[in-house]
Design goal:
Layout: E1 5-11, E2 14-22, E3 47-48, E4 53-54, E5 62-67, E6 70-74, H1 76-80, E7 89-97, E8 106-114, H2 119-132, E9 134-142, E10 145-154, E11 157-163, H3 183-196, H4 208-221, H5 240-261, H6 265-276
Parallel strand pairs: 1-7
Antiparallel strand pairs: 1-2, 2-8, 3-4, 5-6, 7-9, 8-11, 9-10, 10-11
Helix pairs in contact: 3-5
Length: 311
């Protein structure tokens, strides 16, 4: 796994040297702009509108616009001077319960692996955090930016989630007119939630648009025509109670079919009889699932970027 940062975890007087690795990766398909006439890739050109000439990367500087069309220029040396002596340290500030952090604060996940000399200290921290049920709130500086972070144990290893600061979180002033649902509506809504409640199984969720894009690309490469099936839609349900009632009936039916699928061989005969029996079609605002197509094996190409050494 590629190392993107090196430093140490610091809490109390304990120091654990670690390496940082990206824990997630984008699976988006990257497209290039081509010249329509010849299908050759268009080159992005950095050009100064005042000097009317192309500018090389070496001639670029960073500037902050403090007024309209007025900038203050900051050199690499200026930015480097802000780096603190402990900028290579993940400083743990507090240990708290994970449920206290709302997911809106999370940005990106990184794996933290121990240096060879820190195996025992790393394992000690992991086990102590697991047994205490706590996660760590920390501060870390990467690429001239200071982040708030959360350290937690995932698959027997430490994961660091960079976080937004409170002032970066936008707050909704109002959520429309204050409406109080009836007790009947609440009861039906809770029943619908119960019918749709399942243990979290991340493997069963997949990006349908990504798979369709892969199928489209594969068919074009093979010179074939790709036809996308339009989703089957039911009638619009305007009344809230009608929508809740229809949704509950639909989920109860699906729940019953699932229980029959999981039944023993003795119960399979009953399942066949149930499937043969006529059932009333329920029209709701929910799309009906279509027949699943074979999944594409096409994987998006990774773009290689030059990273600064010692990032």
């Amino acid at each position: 796994m590629h190392t993107i940062w090196k430093g140490s975890i610091s809490f109390g007087l304990v120091n654990v040297p670690v390496k940082m690795h990206a824990a997630t990766e984008s699976q988006e398909f990257q497209f290039n702009y081509l010249h329509k006439a010849c299908n050759h890739r268009i080159r992005s050109i950095k050009k100064c509108p005042v000097c009317d000439r192309e500018v090389d990367a070496a001639d670029l500087v960073k500037g902050y616009e403090y007024e309209k069309d007025r900038y203050v220029v900051l050199s690499d040396e200026d930015l480097a001077s802000l780096e603190q002596p402990m900028s290579r340290s993940i400083d743990i500030l507090d240990f708290i319960d994970l449920k206290e952090i709302d997911p809106i604060y999370y940005q990106k996940s990184y794996y933290l692996s121990p240096e060879e000399t820190a195996q025992k200290a790393y394992r000690l921290l992991c086990q102590a955090m697991e047994e205490s049920g706590k996660v760590a709130v920390a501060r870390v500086t990467m690429r001239s930016k200071q982040y708030l972070a959360c350290l937690r144990v995932f698959e027997q290893a430490l994961v660091m989630e960079t976080m937004h600061y409170p002032k970066e979180i936008r707050h909704m002033d109002t959520v429309g007119e204050r409406v109080v649902p009836t007790e009947v509506e609440l009861t039906m809504a809770r029943q619908l939630i119960d019918n749709l409640a399942h243990p979290f199984e991340p493997e069963k969720y997949h990006d349908e648009l990504h798979e369709q894009m892969a199928q489209l690309i594969e068919s074009r490469v093979a010179g074939e025509i790709f036809e996308m099936e339009a989703p089957t839609k039911g009638r619009k349900v305007v009344d809230l109670m009608e929508a809740l009632r229809a949704s509950i009936v639909l989920t109860e039916k699906e729940k019953g079919e699932l229980e029959l699928d999981e039944a023993s061989d003795e119960g399979k005969g009953v399942q066949d009889e149930v499937k043969k029996a006529p059932t009333e079609s329920i029209e709701t605002g929910l799309d009906q699932p279509s027949k699943e197509k074979p999944k594409s094996t096409l994987i998006p190409r990774k773009r290689t970027t030059k990273r600064a050494k010692g990032a």
